[in-house]
Design a protein that fits this description.
Elements (H helix, E strand, L loop, with lengths): L2 H15 L2 E2 H8 L3 H13 L3 E4 L2 E4 L6 H4 L4 H14 L5 E4 L3 H8 L6 E5 L2 H7 L5 E5 L3 E3 L4 E3 L1 H8 L3 E6 L3 E2 L5 E3 L5 H10 E7 L11 E4 L6 E4 L5 H9 L3 E4 L2 E2 L2
Parallel strand pairs: 4-5, 4-9, 5-6, 9-12, 12-14, 14-15
Antiparallel strand pairs: 1-3, 2-3, 7-8, 10-11, 11-13, 15-16
Helix pairs in contact: 2-3, 5-6, 6-7, 8-9
GO molecular function: DNA binding; DNA-binding transcription factor activity
Organism: Streptomyces cyaneochromogenes
InterPro entries: ArsR-like_HTH, Carb_Metab_HTH_regulators, DeoR-like_C, DeoR_HTH, NagB/RpiA_transferase-like, Tscrpt_reg_HTH_DeoR_CS, Tscrpt_reg_HTH_GntR, WH-like_DNA-bd_sf
Length: 254
């Protein structure tokens, strides 16, 4: 098998299933672990994945929205269902970019809410729901990821307030820092944090530790983390020390 074809298959496997071990990729592709390790080094040099102990995780920051939207859907739906149950009718909700926020938007139909977003897919999902007051933030269009960014988006957020912010992430470091792979989105996320009374991080299991070169915020800026699997011990300790509530698929970690 040509190296280019292996690289395509490795990235497809990581994007579909989350982090994968070298041994698993070796078995899937029918090549030696040594070959896989060399492939992972090359793909990391190209900025397409991050190597972790024993394997790798794909960098999703700049993937087209439609591609990311097909990854780990049941996990995102479990997170979204819990998040939706936290919101009371009549409240205002700020939804970040990303596919988990989109899954949350799908849970809000029929509710009496105000939804504020820079996520065009969220806007399209809720535009015809007459019970929802929908506020679309202005800004520069990122076509591939269906979001609005830039100083106009940030200026809009400085004039708004929301009861809840539901924030997405590329990864959460063991120290509890929330990271993102796309630098242009970081100022918008920070402005959202300032505009929200309560900040809820939506993060499936692949986001621990996940990846990302740009820090969005520290654990002290979060109120709740909603995930679909137990959080590793180091990250959980950092979050709890900062007073963050960690919720796992309908139950609170204790």
């Amino acid at each position: 098998m040509l190296a280019e074809r292996r690289h395509q298959l490795i990235l497809r496997a990581l994007r579909a299933g989350g982090p994968a071990a070298v041994t698993d990729l070796s078995e899937q592709l029918g090549v030696s672990p040594a070959t896989i390790r060399r492939d992972l080094v090359k793909l990391e040099e190209d900025g397409l994945l991050t190597r972790v102990h024993g394997g790798a995780v794909a960098d999703e920051g700049d993937q087209p929205f439609a591609e990311v939207a097909e990854v780990r859907v049941p996990e995102k739906d479990a997170i979204a269902a819990h998040a939706a149950a936290m919101i009371e009718d009549g409240q205002s909700v700020l939804l970040d970019i990303g596919t988990t926020a989109f899954r949350l938007a799908r849970q809000l139909h029929g509710r009496r809410l105000t939804v504020i977003t820079s996520n065009l897919v969220v806007y399209e999902e809720l535009a015809d729901d007459e019970g929802i007051e929908l506020v679309l933030l202005g800004g520069m269009l990122r076509r591939e990821y269906r979001s609005l960014v830039g100083f106009l988006t940030e200026d809009n957020l400085r004039q708004l307030h929301a009861d809840w912010l539901f924030l997405g992430t590329s990864g959460v470091r063991p120290g509890g820092q929330v990271m993102d792979t796309t630098v242009v989105e970081v100022p918008v996320k920070r402005a959202m944090i300032k505009a929200g009374d309560r900040v809820v991080l939506l993060a499936d299991s692949a986001k621990f530790p996940g990846h990302g070169m740009a820090k969005v915020c520290g654990p002290e800026d979060l109120d709740v983390v909603v995930t679909n699997a137990p959080v590793d011990t180091a990250t959980r300790a950092s979050l709890e020390e900062a007073g963050v509530e960690v919720v796992v698929a309908g139950k609170v970690q204790t």
